[in-house]
Amino acid sequence: MSQSKTTRRGKRSPTSVWIESYKGRRGKSYRLRWIDPQTDQRQAEPCGRDYALARDKRIDKKVELRDGLSARLPDKALSDLIAQVDTFMAGKAPATRRKTKASLRKLIDLCQDRRLHHVDRGMMMDFRARRIDSGVAIPTVNKDLRQIKSALSYAVDARWLKVNPLWRWKAMQLREPDKRIRVIEPAEFTKLLEKCEDPTLRVLLLVAYRQGLRRTELANLRWAAVDLGKGVLYAENVAEAGEFTKSRKVRAVYLVEEVKAELTAIRDAASKVLKKGQYRPKHPHVFTWPDGQPFKPDWLTRWFTALVEKVDIPPCTLHDLRRSWSTLAQRAGVDRATVKDMGGWSTIAVVEKHYTGEVPEAFKRATKKIEAGQKAG
Q1: Of the candidates 322, 116, 303, 311, which has an alpha carbon nearest to the alpha carbon of residue 209?
Q2: What are phi and psi of 247, to 5 degrees?
């Protein structure tokens, strides 16, 4: 039977931590002892047989107790986190905050409103399984997991949690099967333009297909960011209006001649006001309703879906215009590093996985180069 002896007890204050020695099978060992401030129960943590290590751990534990990182965490639940998402994620786009709260609500619906310190990997594995059993696609489940993980990280920053239970969990994300990238070929895009009766929306399609802008970048595009003299537009952040690019980066987009001519025609036809001695468009946004209100991103998605149904082409989405721009650029011989910078993606891996369809012409050119090199050798 092992014997225990207290070698250093200290004063019984809320942050008291002392070291105890005991004889085990492998000889004399040490452990930390302290009193849980919430339950008034003694807690223990083994420290091995190195007394110096036990002293170092004692110092760390005292700091944890003093800073409230151990046993004194606020009693917060998932519902409390939802209520604070807008505050914690104030720098994020409204859509991002809305989706994060939706994912947390789904977690509550399936696994109940638990205390944050009760959220663990086992709970998330149960959440994944239930979502998949309900028929939800794997990519959608992965998005929910990423958004929940992000919300828990903000809870750690707010000292509601000691650590994020999903941090560095390699098995969190479910493996997604590769899928074929939908590329809208030039002949298909011509059919879309022919069916589009609204001249403003027709130019919006041209900008999306020829320049590769995102849906929100199209909806938020302002005349102040378009320099037709230099033939360039800027995908930029308008913080005071809550309009942000996905990467929060400003990038210059050099216009092809067709797009430049169409944007010039829209600007010339727009209502003007006199500002600082110059006539400028009355409304700040490029793509608007007749009253000057900009198109909403979600409305653009629904409108494009209805347009595709009128055309004799396979189904596609508004975002497929951006994927097509990337693929067609690579077919033309533009390297992926350049495509990444022009399109505003964070890494080449994103371009390779999500924005590269079939590029047969590029493969043919590469095969000919390989063949020439082999013959020369």
Answers
A1: 322
A2: -90, -5
Q: What is the DSSP string of 84-96?
A: HHHHHTTTS-HHH
Q: Among candidates 105, 101, 178, 99, which has minimal Cα distance to 138?
A: 178
Per-residue confidence of the chain (377 residues) as pLDDT tens digits? 445 444 444 445 666 888 998 887 778 899 998 887 666 778 888 888 888 888 888 888 887 777 665 556 788 999 999 999 999 998 787 888 999 999 999 999 999 999 998 899 999 999 999 999 999 999 999 999 999 999 999 999 998 988 899 988 888 988 887 778 899 999 999 999 999 999 999 999 999 999 999 999 999 999 999 999 999 999 888 877 777 777 778 899 999 999 999 999 999 998 888 887 788 888 999 999 999 999 999 999 999 999 999 998 999 999 999 999 999 999 888 889 999 999 999 899 888 888 888 876 666 777 777 777 777 65
Instruction: Look at strands 272-275 and 27-35 and give their pairing.
Output: unpaired
Q: Which two tokens stand for residue 195?
A: 């069916």
Task: For residue 215, give the nearest of 184, 169, 246 by alpha carbon.
Answer: 246
Structure tokens at 252: 């210059």
The DSSP result for 261-281, as a single string, is HHHHHHHHHS-EEEETTEEEE
